[in-house]
TrEMBL record:
Residue ranges of domain Rubredoxin-like in the record: 29-63
Lineage: Bacteria, Bacillati, Bacillota, Clostridia, Eubacteriales
Protein name in the entry: Rubredoxin-like domain-containing protein
A single MF term (Gene Ontology): iron ion binding
PROSITE patterns the UniProt entry points to: RUBREDOXIN_LIKE
Protein's organism: Clostridium acidisoli DSM 12555
Length: 138
């Protein structure tokens, strides 16, 4: 029963990802980037005023179809990285609680290892996101 639930949940996660990708393809719109702050706006025309820095429409440049595709294409992966970072932070908090609880040496060692591994997972995803930002996949 537990296995069945797990498979069912895994399948639904995959399905949602698939639906998300299709939805993004169909709804791909023009993107305009603020040359002052880098904010990216979605729509048929540039916004009258940048929602981030207040710059006028004349400060916006329409992104090429290649740059637009990169941003839409990377949306889901970026969201997955952010979710992984959040989960890793939860593991770090839980591990610290386990370390403080200090039931026995084996648990202590396991929690210390989990804390270190979660840190690695968190930082690896952060590094990927930083790379995406530098490559316009954001
Ligand atoms: Zn701006």
């Amino acid at each position: 029963m537990v296995l069945f639930t797990y498979i069912k949940e895994s399948k639904s996660i995959i399905d949602e990802t698939y639906i998300f990708k299709i939805d993004r393809r169909i709804n791909m719109k023009k993107l305009f980037k603020c040359s002052v702050c880098g904010y990216v706006s979605e729509g048929d025309v540039a916004p009258e005023k940048c929602p981030k820095c207040g710059a006028g429409a004349d400060k916006f440049e329409e992104l090429s179809s290649e740059a637009t595709e990169k941003i839409y294409r990377s949306d889901r992966t970026n969201a997955i990285h952010m979710e992984i970072i959040t989960l890793a932070e939860k593991i770090i908090v839980l591990s610290k609680e386990g370390i403080e609880d200090n039931l026995d040496p084996k648990c202590l060692a396991a929690f210390k290892q989990a804390k270190d591994e979660a840190w690695t997972i968190k930082q690896r995803s952060k590094t990927e996101l930083a790379g995406h930002m530098n490559l316009g996949k954001w």
